[in-house]
Design goal:
Elements lengths: L4 E6 L14 H13 L4 E3 L3 E7 L6 E7 L7 H10 L7 E7 L7 E5 L7 H10 L5 E6 L9 H5 L5 H24 L1 H9 L2
Parallel strand pairs: 1-4, 1-5, 5-7
Antiparallel strand pairs: 2-3, 3-4, 6-7
Helix pairs in contact: 1-5, 2-3, 5-6
Amino acid sequence: MSDETWLVAGLGNPGPGYAGNRHNVGQMVLDELAARVGGKYKSHPSRAQVIQGRMGIGGPRLVLAKPGTYMNLSGGPVGQLAKFFNVNPGHVIVVHDEVDIPFEQIKLKLGGGEGGHNGLRDISKVLGTKDYLRVRVGVGRPPGRMDTAAWVLKDFSKDERSTLPLHLDRAADAVESLITLGLAKAQLKFHTS
């Protein structure tokens, strides 16, 4: 039985009005992981919905979290959960939307800049480091002169929704690969396929 604990946070905005937005793809991936782990989300004092489970029989312990705050204030819940579950930043995985990556592509990284993503900026500030893992789920760039903020707050298109379940499944696989294979091997697997 592994005693390692990983905190996986799926970013998004709370409430049904945002549920289908590109900005909420991190929470969509968390729902896929939750289905794999089993169990139901429970409210946690950190202002997050949390499921605790294991990745496979005897596998690492997972804390799956959907912050209940708006995206720009994701740091509070993530920081409180990391402290509560005694998870160091190297075992924190943040799943989020990324406009600089085409739809259906996934990129994995440790640390680095936030690329204008206010949710990541807040998490870095609260954790006191940028050195946590990220699963960057591509949502593509806005068409024409559309504002990026308006783009990420729009729902996926009909065409995108037809392949979205496969995209979410692959992003959930990427989270699991980060945990089981480590960053370098997971990057090799997901950046070249």
